[in-house]
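From the pipeline queue, job 12 of 40. The input is one protein chain; the requested action is below.

Action: predict structure.
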Amino acid sequence: MEAIKIEKNLDKKQLLNSQELILKKLISFDTTSSKSNLELINYICDYLDIFKIETSKVYNEDKSKASIYYTIGNKKLPGLVLSAHTDTVPVDIDQWSYNPYELNIQKDKYYGRGTTDMKGFISIVLALTPWVISKSFDRPIHVALSYDEEVGCLGVGPLINSMTNNVCKPKLVVVGEPTDLKIVNQHKSCHTFETEFHGKKAHSCYPDWGCNAIYFASEFINELRKIEQSLIHGDKDVNFEPPHSSINVGRIEGGTAHNIVPDYARVVWNIRCLPSESFQVLLYDLFNSVMPSIESKMKKKYRNAYISNRNISNILPLNQKNFPEILISLTKTDPKHKSGVSYGTDAGYFSDVGWPTIVCGPGKIEQAHTSDEYIKINDIKDGIDFMMSLMSGILS
């Protein structure tokens, strides 16, 4: 392996050095969700090949991306799954003080895109490989790395489908998102939609000759805001912030010029639901009454006008009620800590197939998706200690 000397029995200093070199390499791959992650995946496979660990790749449809999973130990026994996503969010280079794809060490912090979300966690798991092998645990450890988590958890479904056919149901899945090593056992679902309005062009001096798609898109957005207000005053769960389901309009586009009645508008929006709530129920009136009513108004202006609506992605909720007691003593969780978060992760998909799942990893979520993203080196050290103790407690 380039720039990495592999020792089969690493002491703590060697382990940290190995982790840093691996993180440096992981950061160097631009795995923004819109791009391929195959260079990173191939690097990880080459690294694991040194230890004669077989990896299974699960490709997307055009084979431009892949998830991987691998096992150390007996696949037929219940063990521990460690999961992370390999993709990252885009970079606004003008807002960075450093090259986001070069690991920069400043004031006891690792800077770079993905240091917190989630290449720091992946580097810990990979660096611990020789230690795991040397321990010869009674139960297996599985590592599952997905693609396209940041754009709707698109890669984890096929990954889990493959795993369920090849490994025994685990005792626990830990998705290593940055939680400051606190247990997160609940998160909201997130459902994203693309709603398109198809009207008719006309010269703006004769607006009645056309059907203004932007006007009707605006009416639709106003209806979304009404639903948003009803959610604020609806069911609440104090484990989450905000403590209710919510709606966000994230993008709107349409029109070509100030003097043309626009024939097209597009609205991209999402709803984040408490685990106890269903988006189908919350949006029933929108889909079955409000949208047909708006479309009917459009058709009065132009008979061929219509609205199309597409569900782009769904992030499943997490609602894990039980997990091994050892986690309480190993993590920073306290009884007053809120166990729910409003962001989504791959965890809901593992839980959906009946695998006990939590979210817990080093670093703070506040650093994820930011310019000058970083993770504290001490957080990495704490993460290593946590992972070693967790594996010793669950796999022995």
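Job complete. Confidence is low (pLDDT under 50) at residues 2-6.
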